[in-house]
Amino acid sequence: xxxxxxxRKSPARKKAPAEDLDFVLHSLQEAHEKSPKYDAxxxxxxxxxxxxxLIRRFEEKAGQLYGLGLIGGFCxxxxxxxxxxxxxxxxxxxxxxxxxxxYRDHGHMLAYGIDPKVIMAELTxxxxxxxxxxxxxxxxxxxxHKFYGGHGIVGAQVALGGGLAxxxxxxxxxxxxxxxxxxxxxxxxxxxxxxxxxSLWQLPIVFVVENNQYAMGTSTARSSAETEFYRRGTAFxxxxxxxxxxxxxxxxxxxxxxxxHVREGNGPVLIECNTxxxxxxxxxxPAKYRTREEVQDYRDTKDPIxxxxxxxxxxxxxxxxxxxxxxxxxxxxxxxxxFAENSPEPEPGELYTDVLVGEY
Length: 360
Ligand SMILES: Cc1ncc(C[n+]2csc(CCOP(=O)(O)OP(=O)(O)O)c2C)c(N)n1
Ligand SMILES: [Mg+2]
Hints:
Elements: H1 18-34, H2 42-67, H3 82-89, E1 98-100, H4 106-110, H5 116-123, H6 156-171, E2 177-182, H7 189-200, E3 205-211, E4 214-215, E5 218-219, H8 220-223, E6 240-244, H9 248-263, E7 269-274, H10 292-301, H11 304-314, H12 319-341
Parallel strand pairs: 1-2, 2-3, 3-7, 6-7
Antiparallel strand pairs: 4-5
């Protein structure tokens, strides 16, 4: 039988003097500002580079396959935002922690190191896909990896993430839930209902706003009274962190601080990763709501992959070595596309599996 809220072992918020709570509200941001970048080893840095580049090349290929009609339905690309998923997910404990996100989810799946073939097969609706070809771009899922989607209803994943965090606490498994959502989703009511309960029950959850500056065609300035999203947890006494989401070392540095805080039983943290999507909202977006110059400026001056490339070169990697990595990744992605194209579609009988079918 489920435990009632009263008998749950976890403590309700520990009573502390107001000054202490105010200190906690700002202390994570202060710690982050003091030492914003993760001190990565050369090996880790190269790994982050390879993972971000894999997402970039994979997404470019997905865009092409969409153009060829091989991907049906919606398809939202993650190009520009690579540092967010890699910086955060590289800090997870994959044996315990869970992740949930919206529909812009290919990068989060690739960040687990899952074979790109399985993800491309899902995009193209093939049996070999991670959701047996029945989820497509927006509904990737892997219970094996504790990745709970892939959700098309804006903001809904946040409340579900609250549930995942409650399960971590209830089962005392030591895990935390990483719940991603967009700047647009941040204006949904259920986000704040979840924040309230998560803070009240001190649930192990890290809320992440991937602020890519737009919700479909609407800029944050046009949609949001408070565009500094990391402040949005303050009313619920959830500490916020303002993070440069175009710098993988900064994102990872913030993850270290936030995850430690949550794992120590202090309740939720809200991280805002400031980032940018280079492509339209989805493949059918002509992106008339912003200028070409704006996009170009991000590509030229803030690109997460180019930024890390510079650091790697300073550390002694040669252009040739990095080119060879790119070549290998392009090959992996091409093979994933070939695999997907040549894989069979699900059997019609699959229509009746993995769904709730009642008998009437
Ligand atoms: C409840 C709900 N309302 C509206 C939509 C339509 N919709 C799909 S994506 C989107 C914009 C969300 O933007 P954001 O949260 O910033 O995420 P991003 O696409 O930028 O990653 C909207 C309004 C939806 N899918 N669900
Ligand atoms: Mg957005």
